[in-house]
Amino acid sequence: MAIKKSDLYSSLWASCDELRGGMDASQYKDYVLFMLFIKYVSDKYGDSDDFAPPVVIPKGASFKDMVGLKGKADIGDKINTQVIQPLIDANSRLARSDFPDFNDSNKLGDGAQKVEKLGNLIAIFENPALDFSQNRAENDDILGDAYEYLMRHFATESGKSKGQFYTPSEISRIMAKVIGISPANSIAATTAYDPTCGSGSLLLKVAAEAGKHITLEGQEKDVTTAGLARMNMILHDFPTANVLSGNTLFDPKFKDGEALRTYDYVVANPPFSDKAWSTGLTLGDGGGGDKFQRFTWGVPPAKQGDYAYLLHIIRSLKSTGKAACILPHGVLFRGNAEAVIRQQLVRSGYLKAIIGLPANLFYGTGIPACILVLDKENAQARKGIFMMDASKGFKKDGPKNRLREQDLHKIVDTFTRQDESDPRYARMVPVSEIADPKNDYNLNLPRYIDSTEPEDLQDIDAHLRGGIPERDLDALGHYWKIMPGVRSALFSPSPRLRGEGRGEGDLSSKTQTRKVGLVVLDG
Known about the structure:
Elements: H1 5-19, H2 25-45, H3 63-67, H4 75-90, H5 105-108, H6 111-124, H7 142-157, H8 169-178, E1 191-194, H9 201-210, E2 215-220, H10 223-235, E3 242-245, E4 255-256, E5 259-260, E6 263-268, H11 306-315, E7 317-328, H12 337-348, E8 351-356, E9 369-375, E10 384-389, E11 395-397, E12 400-402, H13 405-417, E13 426-430, H14 431-435, H15 460-465, E14 468-469, H16 470-474, H17 477-482, H18 486-490, E15 491-493, E16 506-509, H19 516-522
Parallel strand pairs: 1-2, 1-6, 2-3, 6-7, 8-10
Antiparallel strand pairs: 4-5, 7-9, 8-9, 10-13, 11-12, 14-16, 15-16
Helix pairs in contact: 1-2, 1-6, 1-7, 2-7, 2-10, 8-9, 8-13
């Protein structure tokens, strides 16, 4: 029988209520998400007969063993030493830093308070409705959905490091779609990489678009968040995904020899305008001190790290690789060192598209962002950049804005078809126009897309004396092209025509209202 998401969500949130008050949301999330993880892997793999199950559950380290610890005075210490540590020892991809300390008196209280709190937390997950061994399908993503549900709420509530581990799922889906990965062009050896992977949601969306188990690799600076990503991968049935912790710019973990490893696809939501991006790096003049040669186009400003991450992504792409990266709008127009890098980016042909997003989508910042779509394949032949201003399509969702399904589909469909039918929404901008001295490689979207709504002109005379201004009918030109005979069949010149010096004709209907449908069908 399938697990109801409502049962799962209510149980998870009840566990949050059990812990709330003793610590900040950014801290108690670690305990709740571990409980979700240990319950899931215990149910799924605890009695596995597989030769090499995705997760090995040592004897004495399952959720049932945690249940047996309820009420014991040393429950916290026993969870650390008899459950968590054996689990780590048996699974090389897990690390102690992935898991919280269940014996932390500062967070969980002392003595009886800790025993009661941990006992209640375990009891919540004993709910028979949460039997993951009976999940209806091997690849059912109910757990992944719950995991992201929790992380979205934690990102909303947490007063610390807001948003550092969560990219709204709608944006992740857009990025996964615009890089062009699909079942048709993916095999197991297809590689995807996220240099600032957070919880891993972007990588998992890419894998979902691929429709098969591709090779996933990611690096995350925050040790605890890297642990969340590793657990997230296992919950999504990607136990072989490789997530390592460390500073991507200073100490990239994924290398082939002394060079950066290159990938088929790269996605990233790096920290906006990272002021500490260059910590530990000695780049010298012109970036020559970087042994990975990422800064040959120029060194980004010391207090603006956006282009540092973008240059790392470009260097991490294969010769036909594709990428999507979320960055603040400032990268499109800021001057000095960034202007030099931007000019090189445009000239390289790697920049395929810019998608402007609404403001206030991300947790932790209200500034608008954009998605830069990169494609090294046929870059030399690329003569323009497809620009899209999607900043007006969203709904309010509490204190934040959120993309609707219709907004997501419009963005993806417009990008896929390179649709220029609405020049106030998207257009292909020639490189020659961008390079023109009046623009000087400034990519600020309003320079190229006027998204302001045209003024609704009112014809006072037509209001008072009847008739339909020709300009109103001309505005429906795309309909008349589809049904060329309908306009002349429905409307005829007004007796006043172009008189009275107004310079524009009026038309009147020559068909009774009840017969309009027949005229349209005949047209």
